[in-house]
Amino acid sequence: MKIVIIGNSLAGFSCCEALVKNSQDNDITVISQEKVPAYKAHMLMDFLKGEIKEKDVFLCDKDFYAKNKINLLKDTKVYRIDTKKKLVVLKDNAKINYDYLVIASGQKVNIPDIPGKTKDGVFAFYNFEDIKGIKDRLMLSNTICILGEPSQAASLAEIFLNKDKEVKIIEKNKPENLPVHEKLEWIDALELAEIIGDGVELKAIKLSSGKAIGVDLVIFVGNLIPSTEFLKETDLQTEDGYILINEILQTNFENIF
Fold it and tell me: What average pLDDT does the segment 127-148 reach?
């Protein structure tokens, strides 16, 4: 059977690994938006801290897919699904047919529609590529701005403060037990209005008061939404972007899980 798995997170990889273990006759294709093999997302914070090496983040060796005759499509985005023709349509309009489809596309950080959000130096703290980008840029960064879920923002700030960086957190819900640090400023009365840059390069942020602050990194954390925008034109039942399933993870289509 032709089985297509959208997403290469722990869920997608676990499904793929189970299929390989229990049946050698399937034609398996894994579609991933990322450029790397499956990894342990819960260890990304430790990787950023420098407590583990890059190789320890991954769930398998690079040859896992080739060795098990799995077609891994990296850096590939799904545009839509045609449930009638049993096709997955990619962004470049390439089409992959399936007998069974597994959707393990996960979530993504909801970055608000702020001018300048695509500048180099603006990251979402969620996937490996972004965390590696933050880690690489951190060496040349002095001032970091964090926005998003308060507890995650505070945890992230602690890492940067331990590296002697200056941190600005923009979030109205300031934790009551937040430790005082001379290089940490929690801005809870203003909002981010614009991300300013020289061309594509990040240079500063502008607050709702009009004040500009020079920063080297802007990181959005938390505020997750389902990564299922490619399902909008399908008849799959969803609620607020989340896929509705039964007790065996099956959707309203018997061959889509």
Answer: 94
* Overall average pLDDT of the 238-251 stretch: 96
Assess whether pLDDT exceeds 80 at residue 75. Answer: yes
228 vs 206: CA distance, rounded Å:
31
Query: What is the pLDDT averaged over residues 220-226?
Result: 93
Q: For the chain, what is the total number of helices (H) and then of strands (E)?
A: 5, 19
Name residues whose C-beta falls within 8 Å of residue 93's C-beta, 6 or more positions apart in sequence: 79
In degrees and rounded to multiples of 5, residue 173 shows phi and psi of -90, 85
* DSSP 8-state code for residue 120: B
pLDDT at 191 > cutoff 80: yes
Give how far Cα 226 sits from Cα of 16, 75, 76, 243, Å: 21, 19, 18, 9
Question: Are 125 and 41 contacting, i.e. CB atoms less than 8 angstroms apart?
Answer: no
Query: For residue 135, what are the β-bridge partners?
Result: none
Assess contact for 206 and 194: CB atoms under 8 A. yes
Give the three-class secondary structure for 233: coil
Q: In this structure, are residues 144 and 121 in contact, taking their beta carbons and an 8 Å threshold?
A: no
